[in-house]
Design a protein that fits this description.
The complex is a heterodimer.
Chain A lengths: L4 E6 L2 H15 L5 E5 L10 H10 L6 E5 L2 H14 L7 E3 L4 H13 L4 H9 L5
Parallel strand pairs in A: 1-2, 1-3, 3-4
Chain B lengths: L2 H17 L1 H11 L4 H14 L1 H5 L3 H15 L4 H15 L6 H19 L9 H12 L4 H13 L24 H18 L2
Helix pairs in contact in B: 1-3, 1-10, 2-3, 2-10, 3-5, 5-6, 6-7, 7-8, 8-9, 8-10, 9-10
Classes of the chains: A alpha/beta, B mainly alpha.
Amino acid sequence: MSNVGIVIVSHSPLVAEGTADMVRQMVGDEVPLAWCGGNGHGGLGTSVEAIMGAIDKAWSEAGVAILVDLGGAETNSEMAVEMIGEPRSHKIVVCNAPIVEGAVMAATESSGGASLKEVVATAHELSPS
Amino acid sequence: MAASDFSRLIAAATDTVAAHADELTALDQAIGDGDHGLNMRRGFEAVRAEAEAIAAKPLPDALKAVGTKLVMTVGGASGPLFGTLFMALGKELPAAPDRAALTAAFGKAVEAVAARGKSQPGQKTMLDVLQPVYEALAQGKTGSEIADVADKAADATVPMKALRGRASFLGERSIGHMDAGARSTALLVRAVAETVEGR
């Protein structure tokens, strides 16, 4: 698929899955989408391994935009991007945006065939500068 | 460094993290999300489970393997932060470092942690221990002196206001509590210093 992929990373699997449900309601299957949440041991948190898996699942040659909740999700997502390494890492962006609104807006933008840069810019518009 | 020496370092680090897991969790419950002790213990026990294979590698590769394991198993922001510390040390250190090489590599590793956390010393984080430890290394202090520097530096995070991490959400209310990451860093520094000096 040529549309930008969306990855949702929350400390809570419930938040991540619920956000993904809201995205699907907007864009159906037009956008590659994956989510992950939880520390991999049944608790709240985020897992670099799970994030890498979600990026693989939502992978698109157009790139992947990651939406995160709290700081650890951002740090772990950046680590995951680094571990995936070049050349794919150049096409993955961790967005600075609220997770639910950001994911829905980014996916809607992606469904229209927008570039990774445009998708990320749409998500970033939601954050106070 | 002989493989048996690196195995002893892993054992000492894991023992101290496990012995203080409840204390680290209590510190993190006060001003964070309360998972630091459990997360760190899980990560270091995963490292210890593979200690033999890790310790058989040359020192730089062994440190990178420790870092990667922590990244993959800790399950909180501490994973990438402590993982980056060890991965950067592995990247910067030669196979048989002298004191000057160790100091230089440690300085680079501290910078890598600061970049990973988008932080700097003074924000009530592990960097508030790492930076003084780097300076103590550069000043030629002994292992036990460096361990004391680390403990004092962790204590010095108590009156600080958190500017990074979950504790920063609390603003002024973060004052009066020790940073859990600073404490775990000091514990690791002491474990390593005492193991190296005890040889």
